[in-house]
Specification:
Blueprint (H helix, E strand, L loop, with lengths): L7 H10 L3 H10 L7 H12 L3 H8 L3 H9 L7 H10 L4 H12 L9 H11 L4 H9 L14 H10 L3 H10 L1 H5 L3 H22 L5 H8 L4 H12 L5 H10 L4 H10 L10 H16 L1 H14 L3 H17 L11 H12 L5 H6 L1
Length: 360
């Protein structure tokens, strides 16, 4: 689908250069036409298709009334599967479908180690329908994983797309079932590292150990996040984008850390073409500039906890950069990241911020 284009990195730099909230509001007003929203997207898709409401709804597997509501009154699909159905119906490429899932739905892109997503990837490549993908998924059986075996997702993705037909796909799944069961391990571990870091901080302050529930209570994390994390750890269910962003804010993540977490969830980092995320880019950059000790503290503590070599390398760079350049934090009273973001969003009163505000 065609979108109004303006380099996303340019929009991000504009947000980062804002000196105050008035500057930010002017940026948001000036670039209004470039920001993403589902109503504009689905109307553009309908116009480009040349189809009637009824015809468009039929090929996308949705109701005509639902489509009309999106186009006229607003609103958006309430499930990831609906976005995927629309992608199949419109004959999207994998890249187009993933962009729609991430940017408009707040869901992760198609992931080769997820059995359902693998069926979608294969069927999409072969020009099949969403129904074909469902049938293929239903024909796949599952068994317990062998935790000792791993394979890069990129490699698995490439192998999937080279399969000739459904029979070869089913055989491939049967032979590699354990790989499909290894889901989101890097994302889970990344979040666990931050959780352990915060638990360690509280243990030092309080002089006692913390369970996940006690830790959540201590920092004011809403109870729903315990369920979200449990679902990720036990079933590999990736949280919605706004849930991950809110979790990152509660964990006092810096912009780089938050973007890393989103990328591990098969999403793009904070996107300046999203009005809400443009505001977050501005706010987090400002916090990072005023309080570089936050980045330093996070990196220093993660070095003691994480076993991930890439994360260790990134943390070492942050610590070395901080010490070599003798950064100094502002003497302004320090609010938590969540408090700072919540205060800003309340002041700006953005319609797009409703869901995130509920999580904060």
């Amino acid at each position: 689908m065609r979108e109004q284009t303006l380099d996303t990195s340019y929009l991000a730099r504009q947000a980062e250069k804002c000196e105050d909230n008035d500057d930010l509001l002017e940026i948001l007003r000036r670039n209004e036409q470039y920001y993403l929203n589902w109503k504009s997207f689905i109307n553009a898709a309908l116009d480009e298709s040349g189809l009637s409401y009824q015809q468009f709804a039929q090929i996308c597997g949705i109701s005509k009334n639902t489509l009309k509501k999106w186009c006229i009154s607003g609103g958006a699909p309430r499930s990831r599967s609906t976005y995927i159905k629309i992608g199949f119906g419109l004959g999207m490429t994998e890249a187009e479908l993933n962009r729609m899932l991430v940017r408009y739905g707040g869901y992760h892109g198609l992931y080769a180690k997820d059995l359902f997503d693998a069926a979608c990837l294969f069927t999409l490549k072969k020009g099949g329908s969403y129904g074909d993908a469902l049938c293929l998924y239903d024909r796949c059986s599952s068994r317990e994983a062998d935790p000792g075996r791993e394979e890069e997702t990129i490699s698995l993705h490439g192998q999937l797309l080279k399969l000739d037909d459904a029979a070869h796909f089913l055989q491939f799944v049967q032979e590699n079932q354990d790989l499909f069961a290894i889901q989101r391990s890097k994302l889970s571990q990344y979040i666990r590292d931050f959780l352990h870091m915060r638990q360690w901080e509280l243990a030092i302050i309080e002089g006692r150990s913390f369970s996940l529930h006690a830790w959540a209570e201590a920092i004011g994390l809403p109870p729903r996040f315990e369920k979200i994390l449990s679902s990720l750890y036990q079933h590999g269910s990736i949280p919605r984008r706004e849930q991950l962003i809110a979790l990152g804010l509660y964990l006092d993540m810096t912009p780089d850390s938050l973007n890393t977490m989103l990328e591990l969830a098969h999403m793009e980092g904070l996107c300046a073409r999203n009005r809400l995320e443009c505001v977050l880019i501005y706010a987090l950059h400002k916090i990072d500039i005023l309080h570089p000790d936050l980045s330093f503290s996070n990196a220093q503590q993660l070095l003691q906890i994480t076993r991930d070599p890439e994360l260790k390398k990134a943390c070492s760079f942050v610590v070395r950069d901080y010490l070599e350049n003798s950064y100094h934090s502002s003497e302004e009273e320090t609010l938590s990241v969540v408090e700072s973001i919540h205060s800003l969003l309340a002041e700006l009163d953005l319609e797009e911020a409703t869901q995130l505000m509920e999580l904060l």
